[in-house]
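User: Hey, my collaborator sent me this sequence without any context and asked if I could get a structure. I don't really work with proteins. Can you help?
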Amino acid sequence: MKDLIGIKELSKQDIEEILNTAKAFKEVLQRDIKKVPTLRGRTAINLFFEPSTRTRTSFELAEKRLSLDVLNFSVSTSSVVKGETLYDTLKTIESYNVDYIVLRHSSSGTAKFVAENTSASVINAGDGTNEHPTQALLDAFSILEIKGRLDGLKIAIVGDIIHSRVARSNLYLLSKFDTEIRFVGPPTLLPQEIPDNVKIFFNLKEGIEDVDVVMILRIQLERQKGAFIPSLKEYSHFWGLKKDLLNYIKKDAVVMHPGPMNRGVEISTEVADSSQSLILRQVTNGIATRMAVIYMLKPKEV
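Assistant: No problem. I've predicted the 3D structure and written it out in structure-token form, which is a compact way to encode the shape of the chain:
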């Protein structure tokens, strides 16, 4: 495939192939020399219109590990602030003969638009509230490392689901496997249209009871234009994952968070730093997973 715009259009076989490739690249990352000459001579640009720490640095490391030449596009110091359109920015970048474009944008559908207007391979690093496919892939890879499977697992996604592209991509991915998916959160933060294969819980203790994986989501105040929650303090009281609540999940269950975390709001420090937390493993696995995605994409020959 030329682009990775979302998980929705991938088959189960596509996902398994990406995850198997990521496993091979993780072995490479554990060597003394972590770089491979696979894509030497090709160029990638990280085009981020929204703030990012983990995703951008993860992609940059993945690109450099594959021997790509890397450009980081800073919106704040570009002609975008002067009114340049996305299309004109894209055409300027394309004239550099770039092979890969990693795009993050606040508007849903932007990644699809860019992919349709360039010969470069486009990787969606998050578009509005639509999708964040590489996050779902690295989440699945992290679960597989610990559990050895996705089929048969009970997975609770907790928090601000309505605004979360991470939740949407994980839903699409997990739905391709035999998993029990739970959405857990206050009614105001759950989408109105929910697939039949998803169980809904408005009580945190009930929602996480006997699950294998708890995915905690960040409260996205920057995307909320209405009063979805009374206050962060109240949200933390009713929906924050605290140490005592770990008694409700399976003893060998794991806790995940895509980052950045609001410690003391949706997750306590004790849980985030506990032995059941996969949060730092997710960050590490993001490099191998994104290496796999870049490696498997095929830019158009011009």
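In plain terms: Residues 12-29 form the longest helix (18 residues). You can pass these tokens on to your collaborator as they are.
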